[in-house]
Design the sequence.
């Protein structure tokens, strides 16, 4: 599984190119004029909300057994939201590099693909309330009592992908970093005792712990900083965003969000 912090916070080259094109045409994605927001009425009239997702991003959106039904954490939450809105959820599988450009071009109504909220994106798009909250974590063997904080990584060896944000966190903590290709390799090295720890996204660890209950690993520490992911809409989609926010609030209150989260992560990562 890829590093989620990197995946969810990265701006693709295609997105950057789209932004440049928009700037050349006179600015950022245009918002509807006051009083002309039809974002909610449009999906109501067509009876469906078109949702962009990758379809290859386990456990968030993927195909069962590789070629079966599209499913996943984001998919199930999007379907539950659509049901609350009284419309059908129609998914359009899109590569991440083109997902924002597709939203700008009105190929779909929203994105459900673990898109993290940040100031740069908020300047261009509307976001729902978050439905995923995560942190960075230090993962060690269960019997490791020497590492209980990021400060304890000083002088220790961690396994990190050199292209992930977690590599920087490990280096800043004073760790000696051994390069790996991704989480699976890092977890193996920790289990074998060949490195002391690895730093990654909490969702990555929870997914791994859910599918590998006898891993012998634990979370030894986590960051105070949190990453929040949400549905993304074109700027000015005020009515649709508000309706999705209400749907999420209802799904949180009736326990649906927690139930879906427990299914995929064995914990509630929606708050």
Sequence:
């Amino acid at each position: 599984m890829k590093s989620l912090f990197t995946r969810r916070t990265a701006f693709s080259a295609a997105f950057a190119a789209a932004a440049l094109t928009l700037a050349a045409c006179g600015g950022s994605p245009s918002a509807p004029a006051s009083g002309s927001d039809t974002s909610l009425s449009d999906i109501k009239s067509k009876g469906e909300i078109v949702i962009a997702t990758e379809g290859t991003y386990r456990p968030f959106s993927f195909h069962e057994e590789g070629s079966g039904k599209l499913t996943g954490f984001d998919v199930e939450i999007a379907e539950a939201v659509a049901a609350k809105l009284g419309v059908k959820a129609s998914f359009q599988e899109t590569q991440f590099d083109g997902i924002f450009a597709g939203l700008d071009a009105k190929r779909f109504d929203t994105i459900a693909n673990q898109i993290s909220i940040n100031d740069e994106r908020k300047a261009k798009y509307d976001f729902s309330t978050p439905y995923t909250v995560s942190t960075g974590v230090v993962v060690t063997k269960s019997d490791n009592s020497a590492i209980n904080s990021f400060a304890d990584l000083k002088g220790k060896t961690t396994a990190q992908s050199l292209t992930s944000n977690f590599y920087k966190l490990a280096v800043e903590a004073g760790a000696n970093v051994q390069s790996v290709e991704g989480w699976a390799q890092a977890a193996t090295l920790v289990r074998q005792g060949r490195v002391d720890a690895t730093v990654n996204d909490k969702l990555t660890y929870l997914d791994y712990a859910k599918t590998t209950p006898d891993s012998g690993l634990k979370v030894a520490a986590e960051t105070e900083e949190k990453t929040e992911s949400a549905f993304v809409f074109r700027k000015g989609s005020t009515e649709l965003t508000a309706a999705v926010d209400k749907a999420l609030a209802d799904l949180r209150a009736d326990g649906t969000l927690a139930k879906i989260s427990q299914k995929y992560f064995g914990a509630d990562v929606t708050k």
In short: Residues 49 and 89 are 5 Å apart (CA to CA).
